Amino acid sequence: MADAVHWADVIAENMLKENSKHLVATGITPSGGINISNVREAVTADALCRALLDRGGDVDFICIADNFDPLHKVYPFLPENYVEHVGKPISEILCPCGGCANYAEHFLKPSLEALNRIGINPRVFRTDEMYRAGRYNEVIETALTNRDSIAKILEGLSGTATESDWSPFNPRCDECGMITKTKVTGFNPEAKTVDYTCACGHSGTVPLAGGGKLTRLVEWPARWAVLGITIEPFGKDRTLKGGSHDAGKRIAKEIYRRKAPYPVVCEQMMPGKLGIVNLPTKPIASSAEAAVPVSNLLAVMPPESLRYLIIRTKPEKQIHFDPRKSLLTFMDEYELIRAQLKGKSHSAGAFERRICELSRLTGVCQSEIPFKQMATIYQVARGDFDQILTIVRRSGFSWENEECVKNLTDNVSSWLELYAPPFTKFNVKEKVPVQAATLSELQKAFLSAFAALIKTREKLSGEEYHMLIYSANKDGSELNRMIAEKINTQVTTQINSRDIDLQIDSRDIDLQIDPRDLFKSIYISMLGQSSGPRAGCFLSSFEKEFLVKRFEEASTFSPGKR
To answer: Which one of 27, 101, 497, 556 has the lowest number of neighbouring Cβ atoms within 10 Å?
Structure first.
């Protein structure tokens, strides 16, 4: 793995052998919120741009917003009266909230903002503007002139004959505004106009510039010709045999006389396959069933870590990720690699370093506090941000500004609310919980000795707390000796209460200590449950005085004393 070459570098190296100048494209159809599959394509494109630039390539990065596409149906998040707009270009439909220029902008703006959060900042082309400006005129004219040739290509790939009145161009009806119910009846190359009839009963003539749009299968290769795209990531669904990519390659070559862009096929991050289920409902429309909006993941993950999740995997491979179960493990791995590359360790190889380079965001505030530790701190502080800062400071972490800590706090808060499994959640009890009555004599002796020992220490880190607990099982350790003395006192007290004169030396007591019982006693005395977060991190989140008092009280607890 350490000697492997990253997939983006392999593609960049090969593409630069053909040409030093490249246009990398990604796309969004703003009929709903941007989903994680769209984001994977955009991040893939961005990684390729970085790899090309690193090798001295002349690179431009664009995003095509297909805002001239028709509204295909009334999505669940739309009012029922939107049925009257089905078939109209989404750039010409009213905004659902009334605050944007049109329907498309309502979804395009937050989609572009989401991409910006993860460092994706391409030049944006809106297709309605391109059509109206006449940028598609030549390719529309070519498509209409070669209508029969295109029909044969599509028939050969699909095995199904096209309708006799099929056309590669869909005019927009001047009367009803639909582009899905019109039929081309004539084409005037000199005037650059198209005649049409519409199912609504209207007939008319529209200009090539803005009077309609190419059909989906023709528009894709036409776009390659208009913009000069050389590299384009896209979803795996387009690569089905005889599908849109096969059609696009043939139309590009035989009709537009140009080579199709280098294809980078991206496996879709599908909920059913990835286990990303039961996500909060968001306004989203996609050809992918139950597509997941990226806002769900950005709510719980630092943006650079989301890039890392995508970039570390080859585009054609599935990414198995479930924020309910996988997030903590993934964040541990990501934070370890990041720490290694910042000089704290030399074990990270060139491959891991390259993944981080391609994932890195500049100008984005990022905390050094581990996600898992913040999950503990957040719950100890009960979400109080001032208390969180106090604990973070006491734990030895520093930050450039509070925004770094606040961003991570928000991620953790959302994760705990939306996805966190029950075993990761806890609530620190204000008083010794009644479950402390179940503690064994050994557990009580440990808590008493542990309290006495940490009282003498000026400050303990999370790791020091953890190792101190484990030292209880080592013969001759200070904690082991103190526990034996507590046991000796307990036994002597019990014997003397029976009027038996017997002296026991604590050195003669053979303690059989299972560290799991010790950790259990800590969680019971603090949380009223037998398990909890990693003990060292957990304990270091509290003031020492609080711990001493709680463990002393728990070591002598009985329900009657409460």
So the answer is: 497
